[in-house]
User: Fold this.
Amino acid sequence: MITLTGTAHMAVWGKWLGDALGTNAAGASAGNALFGIFLSLVVYLFGQWLFKIGKGFFLFQPLFVGMVLGIFILFLFAKAFGTDTATFYKSAYLPGGNIIFWFLNPATIAFAIPLYRRNDVVKKFWLEIVLSLIVGLIISLFVIYYVSKLIGLDNVGIASMMPQAATTAIAMPIATAIGGNSAVTAMACILNAVIIYALGDWLVKFFRVNSDPIGAGLGLGTAGHTVGSAKALQLGSIQGSMASIAVVVISIVVDIVVPPFASMMGLI
Amino acid sequence: MAANDKATKTETAKEEQASPILIQMGIFAAILFVSSLISPLFPATFPVPTPVIGLVILYILLATHIVKLRNVEKFGDFMISLIAFLFVPSGIQLAASLDILKAQGVQLVVVILIATIVLLVVVAYTTAGFIWLRKNVFHRDVNVEE
Assistant:
């Protein structure tokens, strides 16, 4: 009897929650954006809190904690509702997630400001900046290609790894064009940012990247996209400006360099 | 004390100079709108997304002094300070591709980790090399103000 009422309660609560989250058949069309926004904020703020009490332990970086915890919560919810994580993500999280995601547009544009603040460096070194990004990318492509081969990725996997230096919106169509899987490329772009965000300070110190501020900025912008630029700004105004220019120029360089590189390596 | 007063005064003067936040947002919105019109003009084989065009447009507007720093600075710096949070949905997006991770996950993550480090280190040292060339081979000035 008790179990029966318990189940009945569960059903009522389940229906209410399902309607609210937009996962029930009835509520599917009216997906509630507030859940996605709320979950993103909660996991990120929890990450910030953990980072503070963990005295800055690198794995407690708020973005990384938020990502892992967010996926885990979606996984648990999906289990509770009896669907798979991908479906639950799309119906319950995505409407709100997309609203936050949209703000990356103005945030990316905003990097023109630190770029312009050090316009003196841009004007003086524009040739070195462009050449370094082209040559640096080509060398990196060779290394990434052979590392992927060594680790045993198939051609689709290798092709998906090639365009990751570009911003996601450029990298994905290029990956498709050279025979890669654009979802894997998108994952690479995201993980680039997460890795630079979590390990950036340590990597900069370990590889003594900051011995040349222009190089440090270009490297962080190339490897970590806009998150790398935010990291670079913490090192200094030159680094921040150089990372901002790297995000733009490297994307265009990927546009031009990666397709011929892929055909040279026999990927297409 | 007097110096302190002066500092506060210039601070307030600076505050007054900054454009109202709605105007700053308006400038961003206008740039985004124009960029979204330009972006589809590029061929599918040479994609250039809206925010990249927007960054270039805002830089050109700043460099030509059509838009002043005080018109965009406050909102722009605020958006930059949010960047890590704005990436949370992108990170959680991986929930949709957990099946890819199941198939080749560990290898992919290892390659991505190595690729990230390679891009950072190779680009940084290539740049240091070109700066060295500029200084020692072409004998041009390499000093920058901090």
